[in-house]
Design a protein that fits this description.
- The complex is a heterodimer of chains A (415) and B (216).
- The model of chain A has no long low-confidence stretch (mean pLDDT 87).
- In chain A, strand 1, helix 13 and strand 2 form a beta-alpha-beta unit.
- Chain A is elongated and about 130 Å long.
- Chain A has a five-stranded mixed beta sheet with strand order 1-2-3-5-4, with helices on one face.
- Chain A is 70% helix and 8% strand.
- Chain A is an alpha+beta fold and 415 residues long.
- Chain A folds into three domains: 194 residues, no CATH class; 67 residues; 105 residues, Histidine kinase-like ATPase, C-terminal domain (Heat Shock Protein 90), CATH 3.30.565.
- By secondary structure, chain B is an alpha/beta fold.
- Chain B folds into two domains: 130 residues, Response regulator (Rossmann fold), CATH 3.40.50.2300; 73 residues, Winged helix-like DNA-binding domain superfamily/Winged helix DNA-binding domain (Arc Repressor Mutant, subunit A, Orthogonal Bundle).
- Chain B contains ten helices and six strands, in the order βαβαβαβαβαβααααα.
- The radius of gyration of chain B is 17 Å and the shape is globular.
- The chains are: A alpha+beta (415), B alpha/beta (216).
- The interface between A and B is large, with 40 and 34 residues.
- Chain A: It is an enzyme of class 2 (transferase).
Chain lengths: 415, 216
């Protein structure tokens, strides 16, 4: 006879859940002797000061041990991982930060779980175990009832009267047992996650900390990648193209007796090589200008403004260099804004103002072009908004139809 | 004339040697980094050093620093810097001490062999050769000073002068007559309160001194 897979799973799960509940009884009752003793001692001797401090010490010592036991029980028996939280110690020990740290570290919720909730849970578990025992006993009532004293058996265990009812009731309870055990185990797991694990606020705080770190890492990784690609292109393709153009130039200069057709072909190749160099230069410089790293934003903007095919007024007012990622985002905002002004807005003039006000780097690019740029529509502008957002900066585009267009970015730059 | 080359790309070094030899230079030493360059200059005392800006180990401005070191230790040694991109700051560093015998050009200019050779020879003779892109950057920040009084054409002429071109060269570049160029130049000198001198490189010097004087 084969047992259906669903039934087997249900039986296994019921077994597991019941085992889990059974394993909870003792640890949940562990602190009962402590407060029972405390209550009894106070009632007997009235020496409540000593008793309370002694039992408090016992509770405090027991809490980490019991928490570890419960964690293991949840993890091993029902696969629920109760997260551990070690609050990071504050950098400066002020009253406020110390209070926050204590609130995060002090195991109020754990003590609550072990001291108050534990006994209640133990009762619940015992109840479930009792029901389980009762239903097993009911199902197999025919198997053991013969061993009862004759009087009891005749009064309570009639073969045709009571026993079928016991068996039926046992079977019904047996069917309900998995659900009950499951429900209790789930409820316990939820309580444990809430009380033994970090609180919602702590979890969110931890998540925010993690995300902040990973976002910074990601931005740095992207920047490093851009730098690497820039270096590779500079050392490889760009040198090769320049060399190609130089050789074609040499061919033109050193072979005056070529046929005019050949000369024309070489001259065209020469021209195309030079154009390819110019295009690649623009692309590579857009990735990450080396001078930005070397001499800072002000220096890098000179080259950018000079290469922009429209007159650019450039005003940079920086007392010192800002963080590299702030420099690079500011550079890309200005670069993209000037590209838009040239390519899409048909602007005649543009103005770039970069100013550090306190701990904010303000970047403003204005052009007198057609306007109508949409911060939500253009992929260039959404990309810029995202890059500015990645530094918790503010990005704003004002571009009424007919112009002028003003793009502003405010980047936090505290060092 | 003897020349020394510092360029970390071997491929390009070969091309540069050919171009210089075509221009009548004899390449006496090649180096792949600033250290090698300084050693070569110390050994050969060349009449021209052609230097790539980005070289090992840092790949940033090693060439500029090496050029300034050469100018400090062996004053008067003509140096031409080559770079994928020209930067106003590097030019300012380079021109801060002395503007004669200095060149700063985009690498792609080498491809126009005849022009490049002419520019390098100008530098070797104590002149100046600045890339138009550097000049554009140098002019960029000067809109509040007397340069603002120049007309667009006069700014173009000033730019070409700063590159180190002669009147004939400017006339050719702008497709105008030489006398028109001379008139523009006189206007520029008048507007900028510069004494009129006729030697090619001294007027460049005057322009550059003017450009250099107003920067911090």
């Amino acid at each position: 006879m084969t047992i259906p897979a669903g039934l087997r799973r249900a039986v296994l799960r019921a077994q597991r859940d019941t085992g889990f509940l059974a394993a909870g009884v003792l640890p949940h009752l562990a602190l009962v002797p402590v407060w029972a003793w405390a209550a009894a001692t106070i009632a007997r001797t009235g020496n409540w000061l000593l008793t309370v401090s002694l039992s408090a010490a016992l509770v405090l010592l027991g809490t980490p041990v019991l928490t570890a036991v419960q964690r293991a029980r949840y993890r091993v028996l029902i696969g629920v991982d109760v997260p551990r939280l070690t609050p990071t110690a504050p950098e400066q020990w002020t009253w406020a930060s110390t209070a926050r740290w204590l609130a995060a570290t002090w195991p109020w919720r754990k003590i609550g779980y072990h001291l108050l909730l534990g006994p209640l849970l133990a009762l619940l578990e015992l109840l479930v175990l009792a029901v389980a025992a009762a239903c097993v006993a009911g199902v197999i009532a025919y198997a053991w009832s013969w061993a009862l004293p004759t009087g009891v058996r005749q009064d309570w265990f009639g073969y045709l009267t009571q026993l079928p009812a016991y068996t039926a009731a046992g079977l019904l309870l047996l069917c309900a047992l998995p659900w009950t055990a499951r429900a209790v185990a789930r409820a316990e797991a939820r309580l444990a996650l809430g009380l033994l694990g970090p609180s919602q606020a702590q979890r969110l705080q931890e998540r925010v900390d993690q995300l902040t770190v990973s976002r910074t890492d990601l931005i740095e990784a992207v920047d490093a990648e851009r730098r690497r690609i820039e270096r590779d292109l500079h050392d490889g393709t760009q040198q090769r193209l320049v060399s190609l153009a130089v050789n074609l130039g040499l061919a033109i200069a050193t072979c005056p007796d070529l046929s005019s057709d050949a000369r024309e072909v070489i001259a065209r190749a020469h021209l195309e090589a030079k154009e390819a160099i110019a295009e690649l230069n623009d692309l590579v410089r857009g990735l990450h200008p080396a001078v930005l790293e070397d001499r800072g934003l002000d220096a890098a903007l000179s080259g950018l403004a000079a290469r922009t095919p429209l007159p650019v007024r450039l005003r940079v007012d920086l007392e010192e260099r800002v963080a590299p990622n702030v420099e690079s985002v500011a550079y890309f905002v200005i670069s993209e804004a000037l590209t838009n002004a040239t390519k899409h807005a048909n602007a005649m003039h543009a103005e770039v103002v970069v100013r550090q006000v306190g701990e904010v780097l303000r970047v403003r690019v204005t052009d007198d072009g057609l306007g109508g740029a949409d911060a939500a529509g253009g992929t260039g502008l959404t990309g810029l908004a995202k890059r500015v957002g990645s530094l918790d900066g503010a990005f704003h585009v004002s571009s009424p139809v007919g112009g002028p267009t003003t793009i502003t970015a405010e980047l936090p730059c505290a060092r | 004339m003897r020349a020394v080359i510092a360029e970390d790309s071997v491929l390009l070094r070969v091309g540069l040697i050919k171009v210089l030899e075509m221009g009548g230079f004899q390449v006496v030493a090649e180096a792949g980094d600033a250290e090698g360059l300084l050693a070569a200059v110390a050994e050969h005392r060349p009449e021209l050093a052609l230097i790539d800006v980005r070289m090992p180990p840092g790949f940033t401005d090693e060439g500029v620093r090496a050029a300034m070191e050469i100018r400090r230790r062996w004053p008067g040694t003509p140096v031409v810097l080559l770079s994928q991109y020209v930067e106003e700051r590097y030019a300012a560093d380079l021109l801060s001490a002395n503007t004669s015998g200095v060149g700063y050009l985009l690498k792609q200019r080498v491809a126009d062999v005849a022009d490049f050779v002419a520019a390098v020879r100008r530098v070797a003779d104590g002149g100046t050769a600045l890339d138009p892109q550097v000049v554009a950057q140098l002019l960029l920040r000067r809109d509040s000073d007397p340069l603002a009084r120049l007309t667009l054409r006069e700014r173009e002429v000033l730019g070409l002068m700063a590159e180190g071109r002669s009147n004939a060269g400017i006339a050719q570049a702008l497709v105008v007559s030489e006398s028109a160029v001379a008139k523009h130049i006189n206007n520029i000198f008048a507007k900028l309160d510069l004494p009129v001198v006729d030697a090619d490189h001294r007027r460049v010097l005057a322009v550059l001194r003017f450009l250099g004087a107003s920067r911090a």
